[in-house]
C-alpha cells in the first residue's frame, strides 16, 4: 500500500543576485506503508527542502504530495500543521527541544498539537529509549545522545504513519549514531510507521537495504544549501 505519493514536485529559491534556482524537481516518488528508505545526497542537494515539502513546512511552486490519501499541496497552513501533528513525525538534525522544559514535558508538548497529551505513553517512550531516570531533566542537562532520544520520542509520540528524519545522527559520534539509528528503525517498525531518512553519511546509509540517491529522483541542479 502506498503511503506517500509525490508527483511533479518543484521548489525553487531566489538567490541574492536575483537568479531563480530550482532545488527540488521530482517527477515521481512513492513510499509504501511501513517501508524504511534512506535517501542520500551531497550537502546542498535539496534533501532538507524535500523533507520540509513532504512535512508541509514549505509550499512548492507546483506538484502533488499525498500522505495516506490526503493531498497537502494547496491546503492552508493551519490544515498542514494539523495534519503533520496527527500523521507525520519529524526528527530534526538540530533536535529543536525547548530548553526550559523537561524531557517529559518536551514530549507532552508535541502531543498538544495531535490527539492530545498522554503522559503515560510519553513516559513509556522515554523509558523505552533508556531515559526513565531523566524524565525531569532539561535539554541543557542532557548529553547530545540523550537529547536525540528525546527528539525521537517526541516525533513518535502521536503514533505517526510517516516518520521523516533529517540527518538525525549528524551531531553524534559513530557509536552513538549507530545506536540512535537502530532505535529509530526499531521504534518505527514497532509502531508500523514508514521511515524516510536523509543522510550523506555512508555508515548510516549502508544500514539500509532500500537506498536511493536524490540525484536520481531530482531533475534539478541544486545550487543552494538545503
Verbal overview:
- This protein is of the alpha/beta class and 226 residues long.
- It has one domain (2-217): P-loop containing nucleotide triphosphate hydrolases (Rossmann fold).
- Helices cover 34% and strands 26% of the residues.
- The protein is built from eight helices and nine strands.
- The chain has helices at residues 47-55, 77-87, 103-111, 119-128, 144-156, 174-190, 202-205, 214-217; strands at 2-14, 20-32, 36-40, 62-67, 70-71, 88-91, 162-166, 194-199, 210-213.
- A five-stranded parallel sheet has the order 6-7-8-3-9, with helices on both faces.
- Helix 5 packs parallel to helix 6.
- It is globular and about 50 Å long.
- It starts with a strand and ends in a 9-residue tail after the last helix.
Q: State the low-pLDDT regions, or none.
A: 221-226
Question: How many distinct helices?
Answer: 8
Helix content: 25-40%
Biggest sheet architecture: 5 strands, parallel
Quaternary class: single chain
Structural class per helix/strand content?
Answer: alpha/beta
Rg over CA atoms, rounded to whole Å, is 17 Å
Report, as a whole number of angstroms, the end-to-end distance.
30 Å
Task: Give the number of domains.
Answer: 1
Order of helices and strands: EEEHEEHEHHHEHEHEH
Give the strand tally. Answer: 9
